[in-house]
Structures are given as structure tokens and as C-alpha cells.
Amino acid sequence: LDQQRGDSEDSEDHSKLEALEPLALGLLRTGRLPFVLRAYGDSLVDDIKLAVKRTISELLPQLTTCSDASEGLQAPGGDEGLAAKLRSLSSDSLLMLLEAVFTAVQAHLAKAWEVRAVVEKVVSAFGSPPSVAAVEAAAGPTGSEGSGSGVAAGDGTEVCEARRRLCKETLKANAASISAACEAAQGRWSKLLAVRASEHCELQLAEFVSIMEASIGFVERSEKMCGERSRALRHTLHTQAKAFLEAMHSRCMGSLAQLLEAEKWQVVDVKDYFQRLSDWLQQANPQQ
What we know:
Elements: H1 2-29, H2 33-71, H3 81-87, H4 91-126, H5 132-139, H6 147-195, H7 197-200, H8 205-226, H9 231-262, H10 272-284
């Protein structure tokens, strides 16, 4: 049944894409396709934000309960807010939440990518008019034959130029729509990580690496779709990685200091060479 349902959905999506091509061509011929694509981009951003919000609201209560039960804690109350619930998640629960968000966002971005491909195909076909030379040749020789042919050739050139401008504007709006969608998805992912910035500094190395690998996979996938680097999300990952390394270094230095303080030291005889070396170091650095 699941296989049949999946095949039915794929067939339905394919039918919608086939119906989209003549619709996009009609909108392009009337010059309204760039406007429609900008409106589609705004709608796509809202859909992605809503999908992330719905995924978190459905999955977070279950993950919070499981995380608190495994740690022997009481689940946070409703008045503690979403941020407190996110901070209370274990690393495994957070990974499950990130994977669910990735899946929800990926579904919308994949459809947006298919729409982009259809629009590019339509624009490519529409933006291949006869050359200017062909238009002038069809209009007839200019000059001695009269001004009518010159006007016709000029009109053909203007039509070609107007068509090029329309195709350029359409492709720009098409790219901007999926770019805005990817930016919205990256922004939601960045907020999820930013809420838990202090908790991530206390994770074990393997736990932190797992979260970073999931985030990098999401970044690379979204960047491939929109064709632009996600500077904001990459900055968040870089900042948290730096903070984690500093916190881990501080913990290791504290443990080393405690170990050295607890170590029992005894006075022993050393060779004259080591004593002369120690005296030389003290003379070379009297302030040390």
C-alpha cells in the first residue's frame, strides 16, 4: 500500500509539472511570469517556515519526554517556552529533530527545484527567436526600396531585445525564489542551533561532531540547490565549533592542573648536566 501510495503521489506530481509548462509559457508570453515567480517565492518561504514550525511542534513534546525520562528529570512545563524545551533535549533527540526538519524542508526545496527546471526550459525555448540578421533579411533590403522595410527590420530588432530582457528578468526572479526558500530554511536551522549554543559547549566530542555533520550536510544540500554560499549558517557553525574547542580546552587544562596538584613530588638527585641547564634557563629568564 505504501508503495502504491508513493507511486500515486509521484504520478500526481509529474502530471502537475506537465501542466505547469504550458501555463508558464502563457504567463511568459503575457509578461507576467516574473511577477508570478516572485509571488511564488514568497509563498514558498511561508510554506517552509510553516513546515519547520509544524515539525517542531509535533515532534518536540515526544522528544522532550523521552529525553527527560532517560535522564530522570521532569519535563519542562508549557510556560517555560520553546527555547527551554529545545535546550533540555539530549544530543540524540536533537539529531532526530534536525533530521525531521531536514526531511520536511527537503520536500519543499525539491519541488521548488523541479519548478525552477520547468521555468528554465520554457524560458530557453521562448528566448531563442530568429536572429536579427534573419529578421532584416525577411523584411527586405533597406534604403532605396523605401522606409517600410527599415521600419519592419527595426521593429523585429526591438522585439528580439524585449524578449531577451523578459527572459533575463524571468530567470532572475526564478533564481531569487529558490534562493529565498533556501535562505529561510537555513535561517530556521541556524536558530535551532543558536538556542542551544551553551549546551553544545558541554557535549562530548562524538556528540558535537554528529550535530556538526548533520548541519554541514544540510548546508551543502541547500547551497547546491540555490547556487549560493550560506554565510549566516556557516558563521553559526564556525562560532559554535570555536566555542566548543575553547570549552573543551579549558576543561582539559583544568583536569591537567588538578592532576599535577594531586601528584606527589619528591626531591631526587639529577645529573650535573640537567642542573647546569636549569641554572642557565633561570639566568636567561630571570623573571620566570
